[in-house]
Design a protein that fits this description.
alpha+beta, 118 residues, four-stranded antiparallel β-sheet, single chain
Length: 118
């Protein structure tokens, strides 16, 4: 990912913390208006735009690349994790996949409820 952080001369740029964009006419994939996380009031706002870019050695790996090797490693780790007691491997890392936060929260609640029945 490439991040472009901008200070905007407005008190409200997008009306919410995060907007995911999937339209080909929009060059960035996500915009984050940070003040909405804490409901901060100010005359200016800070917005971060996330742009996709090809991964190069030395870059921060933000998302898994589900190639054959990594998928096999995940399967091995999943087999080991399934044998563990009293621990939940969840979220994006635990499932080794891209998930939206609403999906992560739903899975977390389901996993927790399931753990109570053990």
């Amino acid at each position: 990912l490439h991040f472009d952080v901008q200070v905007m001369p407005t008190d409200n740029y997008q009306g919410c913390p995060v907007l995911n964009r999937c339209d080909h006419s929009v060059p960035y994939t996500r915009s984050i208006e940070h003040k909405h996380f804490l409901k901060t009031e100010a005359n200016n706002t800070v917005v971060t735009f996330e742009y996709p870019k090809t991964f190069e050695k030395g870059d921060e790996p933000y998302y898994p690349i589900n190639d054959e090797r990594d998928s096999m490693l995940y399967t091995e780790y999943k087999t080991l994790a399934d044998k563990e007691q009293n621990i939940i491997f969840g979220g994006r890392l635990g499932r080794y996949s891209y998930l939206n936060m609403d999906q992560v929260m739903e899975m977390a609640m389901t996993d927790f409820e399931r753990s109570l029945r053990r």
